Amino acid sequence: MDVMSRIIPTLNQKIWLEHDIKRIEQLYDGGKIMQFPALQTVYNLPSKMLFPYLQLKSCLQHTRPQTLHDEPLQELSTFEKICTNALPPKKVISLCYKALIHSQTNIKITYKHAWHKELNQTISEEHWTKAYSSHRGITSCTNHLELQRKILYRWYLVPERIHKIWPQSSTNQCWRCKQQVGTMLHTWWSCDIIQPFWRKVGHLIQQITNTNVEPTIEMCLLYIPPENLTRAQWATTYHILISTAMLIARLWKSPSAPNFSTLLNQINTNWQYESMLVHQRGLNKSMAKANLVWKEYWEANKAAHTLPNPKNNSPEAPVTTDTLK
């Protein structure tokens, strides 16, 4: 009701609160606005409230759909109950603080729902917790964490989402294959053009960690560590995956997949950055072991994968397809 009082300056919110009507949804039944006699019966409204009712009804018909989904009302949160009380309670600041820090389990997080829908499976809260904390003790680079979070929260504008925003001036087709709908999952993972690159990444992880771990969407995009990897093995895997994501994002609208040699050089650059911290605060045992494993692999393979320096040596220079050739 507070929102409607801002839209209708003459609306008296207090008279609605006195009859325990605190939310607009309470005026609806079966997806439609209830008639005034029905509201009188349910909430014991006096006849003098007919005009405020007509004000609300007219405004709602112009500002929101005629019908709503016939769903049960969600219970007000503690904070909402405080805000909708006719009279402020005692110790209101303490009550507000307690309400704000209290965990609300009934909140639907949209990015989780979107991942569940696209993957056609439900990811447990335990695994989501692992995804949030999988970087801890492994990287000190805020860019890595930012990139990980952007993928997790579905921040990137993929063709499907762009088409929904601007349907007249865009297409929902993938920028690479130009055949399938460019969903979040397709753009990052399942496109036929990028899948061979992911297979090479999976083989690299197996080779360096000396395991048979299969590259899955949960591991490669959501950064949920597999159960059969040690902390050191996951540290190695994490830097491979975050470097892979960096290259895919860098070539966001490119028709081709990243170059594998560029990936190896990017991984090595990331490890060089992490190694610099050894002199400042030292690496934990898992990181030290992972760093050693990578150095051994790089020394044995760098001759075949070292890229020539581009003309522009600025670290912020974008990597183009010409650079990758």
Number of domains: 3
Tally the helices.
Answer: 17
Query: Structural class of the helix and strand makeup?
Result: mainly alpha
Cα-based radius of gyration, to the nearest Å: 28 Å
User: Which sequence of SSEs, written as H and E, runs from N to C?
Assistant: HHEEHHHHHHHHHHHHHHH
How confident is the prediction overall: mean pLDDT?
82
Number of strands: 2
Measured by DSSP, the beta-strand proportion falls in under 5%
Helix content: 40-55%
Gross geometry: elongated
Strand order of the largest sheet: 1-2
Largest sheet: 2 strands, antiparallel
* Poorly predicted residue ranges: 65-71, 310-325
Distance between the termini: 61 Å
Biased composition (Polar residues): 309-325
Protein name: Reverse transcriptase zinc-binding domain-containing protein
Region (Disordered): 305-325
Please characterize this protein's 3D structure.
This protein has 325 residues and is an all-alpha fold. The protein has 17 helices and 2 strands. The chain has a two-stranded antiparallel sheet with strand order 1-2. The longest helix has 21 residues, at 285-305. The radius of gyration is 28 Å and the shape is elongated.
